[in-house]
Amino acid sequence: MLKFLKQVANYTKEAVEAGRYIGQGLSVTFDHMRRRPVTVQYPYEKLIPSERFRGRIHYEFDKCIACEVCVRVCPINLPVVDWEFDKTSKKKKLKHYSIDFGVCIFCGNCVEYCPTNCLSMTEDYELAAYGRHELNYDSVALGRLPYKVTNDPMVTPLRELAYLPEGVMDPHDLPSDAPRAGNHPENLVKHEK
Ligand code: SF4
Ligand code: SF4
User: Fold this and answer.
1) How many beta carbons lie within 10 A of that of residue 111, not counting itself?
2) 96 lies in which domain range?
3) Pocket test for ligand 1, best of 63, 82, 118, 120 (most atoms within 8 A of CB)
4) Within 10 Å of residue 87's Cβ, how many Cβ atoms?
């Protein structure tokens, strides 16, 4: 009898817990039913990447001194720096440089530590390709500057959620001069000075 009562008590406890978890899940669902959908009609509409967005890396061949710091600080030793020693000038002569974006984790270490600032992160996130080897960018491909979303006449640029005015959830029909939440980087630099 005692065993049976214990089983009933356990069953009741589990049923109450299950009911509580279902209630929690449904509260999230019902909360979203009150919100308007915010759908970006890509590729006709695109979100403007944030200022610190870490997209495809840009590389300047002329500034590179083939020091290989970028390789040493990369968690997967990814950049390929191909150079030969020039006996006449007694300096390294850079022949080729490449980064495989199929493997890169966009951590930004190489950009951070490059002594000549020849690497920088761009806002380019459209790296889709038909084959993974197409993502291995050589120095020419790395030297291309991305097209800014805000300069593209074919695209309606939309602000990201973090850059909308306080309380606004939908970037559509927002006036371009509407104040954003938080400070611009240049204002933050001014405050720090
Ligand atoms: S750290 Fe900069 S300068 Fe040195 S090899 Fe890499 S890209 Fe070139
Ligand atoms: S972003 Fe990170 S993973 Fe990619 S090449 Fe630079 S250091 Fe390596």
Assistant:
1) 19
2) 47-157
3) 118
4) 8
**DSSP letter, residue 89:** T
> Mean pLDDT for each 10-residue chunk of the chain (193 residues)?
90 96 93 79 91 94 96 97 93 95 96 96 94 94 92 90 82 83 73 62
The token duo for 126 is 């459209």
Domain count, the chain: 1
- Cβ atoms of residues 171 and 164 within 8 Å: yes
Taking the model in full, what pTM does it have? 0.77
Distance 108 CA to ligand 2 centre (A): 6
Residue 3 forms part of a structural domain: no
Q: DSSP letters along 116-167, please?
A: T--EEE-S------SSGGGGEEEHHHHTPPPPPGGG-TT-EEE--GGGSPTT
